[in-house]
Each structure stands twice: as C-alpha cells, then as structure tokens.
Design brief:
359 residues, four-stranded antiparallel sheet
Length: 359
C-alpha cells in the first residue's frame, strides 16, 4: 500500500467514527481549561426548534458530515451514503447528487462542502479531489488535492483560495488556490495555524495521541478553527494571523453512535463520531455573539450551549433545546441548522433552529 493510500485509509477510518475512549482521559485533563462549567453564568437564550428536515427518500441519513446554506437552499453532504442532498430552507427535500464510488461526480469520504455563486463544491477526501457541480446537479469538473492537503478533514472557501485542515501535516491549516482542473503544482500551498496546534498539545499532554481534527468557520473577517476533540478554538484573520486562542469548559461525553434496528437487521447511523469532548459548530446571532454547540452527554444537565462574545469571551451557558447532541451547525441571518439526534435510541435528524440576538 502506498503512503498516499495509507493516509486516505487513515482519514476514512477517523472521519467514519472510530470509537476511542476519551472520557476517562479527559476527566484528568479538564482542570487545564481556562474556565470550569459551573463558573460560567447560566442564562436563558432564545432558542427554539421550528422544524426538522425529513430524511431523503433513498434511505435516510447515514452519516451527514457537513451542511451549508445558500439564498434559498440547504445542502447536506452524507459521508456514508456518498451523496449530496438539496433541501429548501424550510426542510423540503429537492433532490440528491452523486453516489458512492470513484468515478466523476461520485464520492468517497466526502467531508465538507460549500456554495460559490452558482457552483457547489465538495471536498471528496477519499478520492483525493474537490468536485464542482452546478445548482441543477450537473458535474462541472474536479480539482486534484495537492500532496500536502491529502487527508483533509474539513475545508472552507475564502476569496480565490481554499483553507483546509488535515490530519497529517504538522501545520493544521493549509491555504491554497482553487479552480476547476487546477494542477496540484500550481495550487501554491501555504501552511499556518501552529498556535492552535501548540495549545492543543498542551491540553492533550503526553498521555494520548489525539487526532488533529478541526472544524472551520468563516465569520466576517475572522476564521474560527474549532478542535473536534479538545476544548480549544483558534481565531485567525483572513491572512492567517492569529487573533486569539480560546479554551472553554466542556465535560466528557459518552458514546457517539446511534443505532437503528430495521427488519431484523442493524443499521448503524453515526452522528457524533468518536467520543469528542470538544465542539462541532458555531451559530451566530445578528448582534455578533456566537453560540458554541458542544458534543456532550445525553443528560439535559450536561447538554450545554455556550455563548461567546465576538472576542471569544464565554459569557453564558444554557441547556440545549433538544434532548440530544447538536453537531455540525451552520447559520445565516436569524436562522440556523444543526445535525442532531433526540436521543441515543433515535435517528439522526437535521434540525431547523431559530434564535434571536440580544436587545
């Protein structure tokens, strides 16, 4: 097996939800965080669930990995099904794109997506490329991933570039040019992000090799880099310069798997992946405050949402409006969307959330 194939196999395994026992380890490390949960004031946030996206008709959500919104659509990429799903912003199913495989327009370990004008792009990690589609689902072309970006676990578009995070490069963030059929040698890959990697290493200590897995969010002129396993966030400007490194309180959680039994057989539908203690999404309110969705225990007392000021200060916490983990969130205007499960015995669903900013 070549080095590239080994890297792709590793990222497929990690992104696919390999069960690793973080809870006992994290209980010994949580004192290193800047705040303890009980030190953050409890407040009432104006969250409510206003709808649920119905599963697609071709078999339901298997492992929704990322979602994004455009002016009139919500796009969801499903890692296990190998499909890109299109919904209205009210949750009505419109159609699907692609399928599992290695051919043109097919997906293997699709890990991220975004909308650029009339084009939808998908980070097709398992196939080592970025695929482009128009709004009608027609395949437009591909961009091979440069060698340094192989194994990318998440990605966002910024201007004429992509910013990706990878499990294997010493620098957790890589910026490179985007373009259909752009040759990898012309991508001009520039690494950055050593600051958040160093803080993550301090939280981790020497007891365990935690995967270098992050979620990326572009909010105005700031890039938020959110560790998927450790309670640390890096805030960078669009040139890659660090603005702030944030640690926050997060209790250990239990299993991240949801199992559904159908017709005598077990269908496993993974929602949260391997026991992370960190977070997966940030919802932004119109007044500029952020709501950090953390992946935590099933019990309502531990199911916290943290409120952060734009400079990263934790100013409050509340109980989630849903009795189950909230993960992989995105927002636009005064509406938000988050993948979650009402209980560990329920099916994964995409929730339509609504909230208001502070007066």
């Amino acid at each position: 097996m070549t080095g590239r194939k080994r890297r792709l196999s590793a990222v497929v395994a990690i992104l696919g939800g390999v069960a690793i026992g973080w809870s006992t380890w994290y209980a010994t490390r949580r004192a290193e965080a800047r705040w303890e949960p009980e030190e953050v004031p409890a407040t009432q946030f104006p969250f409510e669930v206003v709808g649920v996206f119905q599963p697609p008709p071709d078999g339901g959500f298997w492992m929704p990995m990322d979602l994004t919104v455009s002016e009139s659509r919500v796009w969801i990429v499903d890692y296990k099904a190998g499909r890109l799903y299109e919904y209205t912003r009210d949750g009505e199913f419109v159609g699907s794109i692609g399928g599992a495989g290695q051919g043109p327009g097919e997906f293997r370990a699709a890990a991220a997506l975004g909308v650029l004008g009339d084009t939808v792009w998908v980070l097709n990690t398992g196939n080592g490329r970025i695929d482009y589609f128009d709004r009608q689902g027609r395949y437009l072309g591909t961009q091979p991933l440069p060698d340094e970006v192989q194994g990318a676990s998440h990605m966002v578009a910024l201007g004429g570039d992509f910013i990706a995070t990878t499990l294997f490069n010493p620098a957790p963030l890589l910026r490179f040019k985007r373009g259909i059929d752009l040759h990898p040698n012309d991508a001009d890959v520039r690494p950055f992000g050593h600051e958040i990697a160093e803080r993550a290493a301090m939280l981790q200590g020497s007891s365990l090799n935690v995967p270098q897995s992050y979620r990326l969010h572009l909010v105005g002129s700031h890039l938020w880099v959110i560790h998927a396993y450790l309670p640390v966030i890096g805030v960078y400007d669009t040139h890659g310069m660090p603005i702030q490194i944030i640690t926050y309180p997060a209790p250990p959680i239990g299993s991240g798997q949801v199992e559904v039994v159908r017709d005598g057989g077990t269908i496993r539908r993974v929602v949260t992946g391997p026991d992370p203690v960190g977070s997966s999404g940030v919802l932004w309110s119109p007044d500029g405050r952020a709501y950090l969705l953390t992946q935590q225990e099933e019990t309502s007392e531990s199911q916290r949402i943290y409120e952060l000021d734009r400079d990263g200060t934790v100013v409050g916490r509340t109980v989630s409006p849903i009795g189950g983990p909230l993960v992989f969130a995105t927002s636009q205007g005064e509406g938000g969307y988050a993948i979650g499960a009402r209980s560990l015995g329920g099916e994964p669903e995409i929730y339509i959330l609504r909230w208001r900013g502070h007066p």
